[in-house]
Design brief:
The chain has 362 residues and is α/β, with parallel strands linked by helices. The protein has ten helices and 14 strands.
């Protein structure tokens, strides 16, 4: 009897296995494997029919995922976005890693998917490393909006750009060239090697430098401080020692420019090496006042976060789909238009100096 029972159980198991194998191509068996859900499967583009007159949905869940949770600039952006969420009856929050490594955001995206957020706003540390989980989020009808630093285009529906990437990159070169009389060696102190925004700006900087008016200027090095204060400080020190004829440093990152200013301001290079780049007024005020640098640029990060929330809410409410030419209202900022590849531009950067820095508080 025991032998017959075992035979019957083996027959049932064998039949079940055969049935599973037969139906796997159609629907799969219970459970998933790494091959049963592919990251490159088509994601919902969100580019269906939009209704610009649709009301903003109430109770939306909106999550900000910055490059790193302790970045002071991105804290300003995200706090403003969370406050804007409260204004429209949504719930906003910020989550993220403590470092800016390429894959550090992946686990947070997976958690936000499990939490069934309505929209994820991400400043990508790497344009491709986050694509798999972001595509999975879109397949589950979670809207994905990149801000500050873009993902690959197929991995989100919108990108909120602080300003035209070309204008940011070229203006950085124009500004420092004017300070240097269009002569001398310069270096760039960037964030991470994979940061989409940094690399895009740097390419436009390099292209700008090929113009005839910069024939007496030379870019000698692009260094990476990884958006870490101490490493950026050390990279500044290394640049100045390695290139004794260095006349200027462009640092298009708020962490980098502050660290560079701290080093230069307490060294013999103060007043001899020009520093320019992107920073916040409150962060850089003392360096303007003590003469470490004369100017720097940025946009209002509060407005960036504010616009990000309204864009995500418009997307999640069906007012827009991410298609070029669509328009939506962003509260006090007015109306915005979706551009090519889902890009929305906040506006031109502002140059801060001793004359106007007292007018800003962020």
């Amino acid at each position: 009897m025991l032998s017959q029972a075992r035979s019957r159980r083996r027959a049932v198991v064998t039949a079940s296995a055969a049935l599973c194998a037969l139906t796997l191509a159609v629907s799969g068996c219970s459970g998933t494997t790494k091959d049963s859900v592919k990251d490159d499967a088509p994601a919902k583009s969100g580019k269906g029919e939009a209704n610009p007159d649709a009301p903003l949905k109430k109770g939306l869940k909106i999550a900000f995922l910055p490059k790193q949770i302790n970045n002071p600039y991105e804290k300003i952006v995200d706090d403003a976005g969370i406050a804007a969420a409260g204004e429209i009856g949504a719930t906003g929050k910020e989550v993220g890693p403590s470092n800016a490594k390429a894959s550090s955001q992946v686990s947070y995206i997976n958690t936000l998917i499990q939490q069934k957020q309505d929209a994820i706003l991400i400043a990508a540390n790497d344009p491709n490393a986050v694509c798999g989980p972001l595509k999975q989020a879109m397949r589950q009808d979670i809207k994905v909006v990149a801000y500050d630093s873009d993902t690959a285009k197929e991995c989100r529906q919108l990108f909120i750009n602080q300003a035209s990437s070309e204008e940011i990159g070229r203006s950085q070169v124009r500004n420092i060239a004017e300070q240097l009389g269009h002569k001398g060696e310069i270096a760039i102190l960037s964030a991470t090697q994979n940061a989409t925004n940094q690399n895009t700006w740097i390419e436009f900087m390099k292209d700008e430098l090929t113009k005839p008016e910069y024939k007496d200027m030379k870019l000698v090095k692009v260094a990476y401080g990884d958006d870490q204060d101490q490493k950026s400080f050390q990279e500044t020190q290394g640049l100045l020692k390695a290139y004794p004829d260095l006349k200027g440093i462009i640092s298009p990152t708020t962490v980098g420019i502050a660290a560079a200013a701290r080093y230069i301001g307490d060294s013999s290079y103060k007043g001899k090496v020009v520093l320019n780049g992107l920073g916040t007024p409150n962060q850089m005020r003392k360096y303007i006042e003590n003469g470490t640098l004369d100017q720097f640029s940025l946009w209002d990060p509060k407005k960036l976060g504010y616009l990000g929330t309204y864009a995500a809410a418009a997307l999640a409410s069906g007012q827009i789909s991410g298609a070029e030419g669509e328009k939506f209202k962003a509260g006090d900022l007015g109306e915005y238009t979706v551009g090519k590849d889902g890009e929305i531009i906040l506006g031109p950067p502002t140059v801060f100096d001793a004359k106007n820095i007292g007018d800003f508080d962020f």
